[in-house]
Amino acid sequence: MSFEQGFLADITKRFRIYKEMGDKTLAQLSEKELFFRPSPESNNIAIIIQHMYGSMLSRWTNFLTEDGEKPWRKRDAEFEATEASKADLLSFWAEGWKCLLDTLSSLKPEDLTKTIYIRTEPLMAYDAILRQLAHYSSHVGQIILLGKMIRDKDWQSLSIVKGHSSEYNQSMGMR
């Protein structure tokens, strides 16, 4: 396997991990909880999903051939309160991730060094991919933090349960 093939496989795996963490968080929340705001200036999970959806469709549609900031994108509107249902939000979430993952699966190793543009800024395709991984992972982290705040003691951990690292390590054959 070439470095480029490995990069595409590994980056796809990382995106899938963040999607799964978001999926597991969203599954724990009610429709009402998706609209919880810790302060008036904060985004709720519904707004974060709207923003990620807009970003994903814009960045990953025609990734190699069009600027990643599409003329049809209304970024400012992504941060406005929405009346969407949980089903609508989950649909946006799924569609955005599908666009991203379908695009990644269509890339060839030689595509990674092609120049693409985001807001007219030239980037190597691999750098644009890393840029989006950082962007989306930060938003998934926000979703998780809000989910943990909302669910509090009822939160179902997405990783090693607090206070159980030794048990986990032993189950993995570590000392």
Automatic annotation (TrEMBL):
Pfam families: DUF1572. It comes from the Bacteria. InterPro entries: DinB/YfiT-like (IPR034660), DUF1572 (IPR011466). SUPFAM superfamilies: DinB/YfiT-like putative metalloenzymes. Gene3D superfamilies: dinb family like domain (1.20.120.450). This is DUF1572 domain-containing protein. It comes from Filimonas effusa.
